[in-house]
Amino acid sequence: MARSTRKQTELFLLAQPLEALSQIVLPTGEDVLRRLFCHGSNSKDNRKAVIDEVVRVWERAHIPVVPLRSIMKKLETLVGKYEVRKKAKKRQSEGDKVSDALLQGHLASLFDIAAPATSSSMIHLKQKDKDFLDDHRGQRKMVMSTVDKESMAKESRKHERLAAERRRKEKELAETLERGEMIELVTGSSATAECVDSSTSSSDTNSFARGSAAASASRPKRLKITKEVAAAADKVKLTSRRAHHVFSAIAADQGVLSPSTSSICRHRKVLRKETAEAAVKDYRNQVQEHDAVLILHWDGKILPGSESQGHVDRLAIVVTSPSLEGEKLLAIPALPSGTGEAMASKVEETIRHWKFEDRVGGLCFDTTASNTGVHAGCCTLLEQKLGRPLLNLACRHHVMELILASAFKATFGDATSGPDVQLFKRFQKK
């Protein structure tokens, strides 16, 4: 097995690839390139990994840097200059030697990613950090301490702050538990006093203490949003903001707190998801119980969307079965286009979500080319995706349309066009 030598791994105008950046000095352009080529390739992921290492060194020096996109652009420019000269490394004219010397001098300087001097972070930078940066832009004699005393002090203060917060919470919990025990004791003593029918001044004092303690310890009740309430709000198309006004009036009448608009919206989303999952599970159990074979129906409809979308082309996906009563609407996903591939992808995604891919035995569709195409039709693609042939059932309505159209054409001749009335077109658009 051949082994690579140091000569073989040596980089053009650079030393050997760098396994890690130094943590006591800011890296030069040469250091960054050596670290990059140690990863093996000049890919985007490798450049990002090297930039993360460089930024960590600068952060350790407490010097603010420019945004990451600017650092990435600077590195790409440096790599581009190096690659251009590397391609012409066999040429050794006087001009090429001068270019090599200039490039080496540029690489030996600091890979400067410091924030602009006019930025607020640089203006408030400590003087010792400014001196360190100025030194590395020139002679590069200063180094960072291996032990960052300032960072250690920050960590120590952080741990002390967390410990104090923990002690405060433990103290509050102990006081709460003690207050609860006092309430129970006061309640018990009052009950005993009532049994013996004693009305002393001490019992009055205890009753007052119990009332004030109970009032401070009891939490106010909040209006609860049930599934029925959420379903009713959805049925009448009540937004969360409008529902908040209704709930606030009810809560004020009942003497409880009303949930906020964001809480109402969050609860409605959770309840909708639970209702949808329950409906899917219930119908799935019915199909398994009757061992039903499903007929899959789909048809595209143009429906109004949001104000920004206008009208959206959606695909209604329905299943029926002789073993089950009625039909079941599975989904109405939006279509990116009206092609057979787009429809087949949405239908497959829906039936796999419902776990009906092994239950579908037939397809019911209209007779458009996007459905009945031999190569790119939705039916053909669905059979390929499910891995088995399916019974193709052309919709009888569309079949009768073709028969009636042919009958009228044979009886009355070619179809005639109606009058072009602009008023009708305006009503049609509305």
UniProtKB/TrEMBL annotation:
Biased composition (Basic and acidic residues): 147-173
Low complexity bias (residue ranges): 197-218
Superkingdom, natural source: Eukaryota
Residue segments, region Disordered: 145-173, 195-220
Protein name, as recorded: Uncharacterized protein
Taxonomic lineage of the native organism: Eukaryota, Metazoa, Ecdysozoa, Arthropoda, Crustacea
